[in-house]
Amino acid sequence: MKQDIDILEDTTLVEEPQILIDFKSTKKQNIKCLNKTYKVVSLFSGCGGLDLGFNGGFTFRSRFFEKNKFKIEFANDIDPAAEHVYNANKDFFNNHKLHCDDIKNVNYNEIPDFDFLIAGFPCQPFSNAGLRKGINDERGNLFEECENILKEGLKRKNRPMGFVFENVKGIMSSKMPNGTTIPDEIVKRTEKLGFKTCYKLLKTSNYGVPTNRQRLIIIGLRKDLGYFDFSLFDQIVTEYNLPNETDNRYELLLGSVLSDIPQNAPQKNDYWKYSPGGQYMVDKIGPCKNGKESLEKFKNKIPISKISSTISEGKSWKNMNPIDMNERFRKIWDNPQIYRAPNFYRRFALGEINGTITASAQPENCGITHPFENRRFTIREIARIQSFPDDFDFPYKTIANAYKVIGNAVPPIFGWVIAKALTKHIENE
Question: How many whole angstroms from its chain centre is CA 161?
Fold first, then answer.
């Protein structure tokens, strides 16, 4: 009997965000804090993508993303590679530096009072690429550290107003031993603490980010603030005229993203070479059609209708001649129903929006290969795809670490939209 085998991350994209819990927002109080700066504690901060979004005050290409009303008071991550990058960019964070330690070792007295807790607790246990070990993986229990810090905050005079948790789509399929999904468990636990909590699956390309990454956003607010209104995300996109899948899609296309990287941008030419086997596959798959010519047209901002239609034709291992395939791929080729015909070695074309860049940056499970050059994207190119500013530096001791911290990051523009929508909700604008 044939069975589906989910051997790599499911790259199926949703066309519309999906609501898992859709509470109607209750009437909110206007807390009259229009001039307030909200203090933030950031956990599992990585290289600072979500923190940068909440802070604001950065430029991506020609767009300036204004300062937000949030200030990072404390940020922590266990990864020295993330610390190295975060602290090299402290100017983006009001000269604030990342505290590098296992969160389990952090003394609560080290954590200042905060209005909001933001956290992207490690996603690998819940991702398909991480084989969905879920709550049984030690890292899957790190939500409890977030829960404990919320409990600590609630004991203080200045109690927190809420929290924002970010994670991968795979967390929706991960379950507790009692069968409850992880998001539902988080809702249950945080509502016991007195928050009104809801969540939604969102696609970042609908919010100004040039990648089809899907993220689950969980937001809990103090009871008097009501359930968060997720429609505010779309209002922010409209208010600030951000590119999205429906309007001004051109800015999100890979050709546009790669067309105007400054010559002096850090790590512009730094890329991680493939293994011999990986390089063989990429060479045999071959480049997307009309790559160089089409990129020049994107540089000149030629309308998409006047650029060859072939720029929308991406590639993968399926474009190989079967004769060139090794035994593993011939087996998949012969039994596509069993293996779901996965998109190994996916190569996005210039006319597409790039897919998720994973932390491993392996060509087998993410679109990490340049459209027409037979190599990985450079560090700067994947930083662009993740919406980091061109002057955000990624110093590294090993080049694999640079790819890892970028792949793990929340896209800053997505974080900025979250922060703007959160402000609009709590200030009842």
Answer: 24
Nearest to 168 by CA among 123, 218, 121: 123
Same structural domain for residues 185 and 257? no
For residues 167 and 120, the answer to whether their CB atoms sit within 8 Å is yes
Full residue range of the structural domain in which residue 287 is found: 249-407
CATH of the domain at 47: 3.40.50.150
What pTM value is reported for the model? 0.86
Q: Are residues 71 and 218 in the same domain?
A: yes
Residues 229 and 356 in one domain: no
The distance from CA 73 to its chain's CA centroid, rounded to whole angstroms, is 22
Identify whether residues 393 and 328 lie together within a single domain.
yes
| pLDDT above 80 for 334 | no
Q: What is the mean pLDDT of residues 89-115?
A: 95
Q: Are residues 253 and 379 in the same domain?
A: yes
Nearest in space to 164 (alpha carbons), one of 106, 114, 105: 114
Least confident of 113-127, 196-210, 278-292, 321-335: 321-335
Considering the domain architecture, whether residues 73 and 200 belong to the same structural domain is answered as yes
Packing angle between helix 143-154 and helix 182-192, nearest 10 degrees?
10
Q: How confident is the model over 283-329, as pLDDT tens digits?
A: 888 888 888 999 999 999 999 888 876 677 676 656 656 666 666 66
- Number of other CB atoms surrounding residue 241 within 10 Å: 11
The reply to whether 373 and 416 lie within a common domain is: no
Same domain for 216 and 229, yes or no, is: yes
Residue (of 406, 417, 409, 393) closest to 49 by Cα position:
409
**383 belongs to a structural domain:** yes
Q: Angle CA(44)–CA(118)–CA(386) in degrees, nearest 5? A: 70
Residue 3 falls inside a structural domain:
no
CA–CA dist 256, 100 (Å, integer): 36
In a domain, 1, yes or no: no
* Distance from C-alpha of 414 to C-alpha of 215, rounded to nearest angstrom: 10
Instruction: Give yes or no for a contact between 212 and 355, defined as CB atoms under 8 angstroms apart.
Output: yes
Active site residues: 123
The model's pLDDT over 145-190, given as tens digits with 9 standing for 90+, comes to 999 999 999 999 999 999 999 999 988 988 888 888 999 999 999 9
Cα 418 to chain centroid distance, Å, stands at 12
- Are 210 and 251 within 8 A, CB to CB? yes
Residue 123 included in any domain: yes
